[in-house]
Design brief:
Elements (H helix, E strand, L loop, with lengths): L1 H17 L5 E3 L3 E8 L5 E8 L7 E6 L4 E4 L10 E8 L5 E11 L6 E11 L22
Parallel strand pairs: 2-8
Antiparallel strand pairs: 1-3, 3-6, 4-7, 5-6, 7-8
Length: 144
């Protein structure tokens, strides 16, 4: 009896290993912009690969705020195929970048995958203002 239970459990493990379904694998967890200048290009990419044995479907990509806009293709990704998720950060905002993008899919290993972007947007250098010349109190006044 013990042998039968052991055999059934082993068969279940083998079956689960073979029937993996769609699997989401990503090239990086975090994109680090480092220090960039205000107004620079804030676009980065994440590469998603379907390492499973069934089509992977990304149903949604959502940024953590309005300044982080992801763009993803919702067409099925066949086993072994790749797709790119493009993320655009609004670099008009000066200061630290620490945002996330949530990728929702039918992946059996991670139906919701969160990736992050980080860095710092450096403000544009201020241009020195030239001093305003004031009229001398001794200057003659024109009469018109």
């Amino acid at each position: 009896m013990k042998q039968l239970l052991f055999s059934l459990a082993f068969a279940g493990l083998v079956f689960n290993a073979q029937a993996q379904g769609p699997q989401l694998s990503i090239d990086k967890e975090v994109h680090d912009y480092g220090t960039i200048k205000q107004g620079d290009n804030g676009t980065c990419e994440f590469t998603v690969t379907n390492t499973g044995d069934q089509p992977l479907i990304i149903t949604n990509c959502k940024g953590s705020c309005g300044c982080t806009v992801p763009k993803c293709d919702t067409a099925p990704i066949m086993p072994g195929a790749k797709t790119t998720i493009t993320v655009k950060y609004d670099t008009k905002r000066v200061g630290a970048i620490n945002k996330s993008v949530t990728i929702t899919s039918n992946a059996t290993n991670t139906p919701e995958k969160v990736v992050r972007i980080k860095g710092t947007v450096e403000g544009a250098p201020e241009t020195p203002t030239s001093p305003v010349k004031e009229a001398s109190p001794m200057a003659p006044v024109e009469k018109g």
